[in-house]
Amino acid sequence: MLHTKHLDMIDRKAGTIYAVSDGIWDHAELPFREYESMEILAAALEKEGFTVVRGVAGLPTAFKAVYGTGHPAIGILGVPMGTALCNLCIAILNLIAM
Predict the structure, then answer these.
(1) What is the phi/psi pair of residue 75, to 5°?
(2) How many CA atoms within 13 Å lie on the side-chain side of 89?
(3) Is 30 helix (H, G, I), strand (E, B) or coil?
(4) What is the C-alpha to C-alpha distance for residues 12 and 93, in angstroms, rounded to an integer?
(5) Looking at the chain, which terminus has fewer C-beta neighbours within 10 angstroms, N or C?
(6) Burial of 9: CB neighbours in 10 Å, binned 0-12, 13-18, 19+
(7) Mean pLDDT, residues 2-6 taken together
(8) How many Å apart are CA 82 and CA 9, to the nearest integer?
(9) Strand order of the sheet with strand 51-54?
(10) pLDDT of residue 6
(11) Each residue of 21-71: pLDDT tens digit?
(12) Hey, what's the torsion of the CAs at 35, 40, 43, 49, to 10 degrees?
């Protein structure tokens, strides 16, 4: 269940959320060739304070993003593709809101 603080955070981040979404859809790319989409998402995460490692698992469009230290650990492993990207963006919003 979303709390008021989460909804407020979404409102504050709306410009960024829309810019990331629009940027990804403006660069429709084939699976495993999402170079622009990956860079848009990775850069947005870095701007939010995540540490991003690009090219993980031997895939140039894959990345790992980690926020904070200690426990609980918060991390994202992303290979932006189609509808999976939507789920990843939702997960990012939830993590940023913590």
Answers:
(1) -150, 160
(2) 23
(3) coil
(4) 11
(5) N
(6) middle
(7) 78
(8) 25
(9) 51-54, 63-67, 74-78
(10) 78
(11) 888 888 888 877 889 988 998 999 999 898 999 988 888 888 888 887 777
(12) -130
Strands annotated E in the chain: 51-54, 63-67, 74-78
Q: How many CB atoms lie within 10 A of CB 12?
A: 10
- At 97 the pLDDT is 54
Check whether 76 has a pLDDT greater than 70. no
Give the phi and the psi of residue 61 in degrees, each rounded to 5.
-100, 0
Q: Which amino acid is at 20?
A: V
CA distance 32 to 9: 31
With H, G, I as helix, E, B as strand and everything else as coil, classify residue 53.
strand
Q: If pLDDT is split at 50, 70 and 90, which confidence band does 7 have?
A: confident
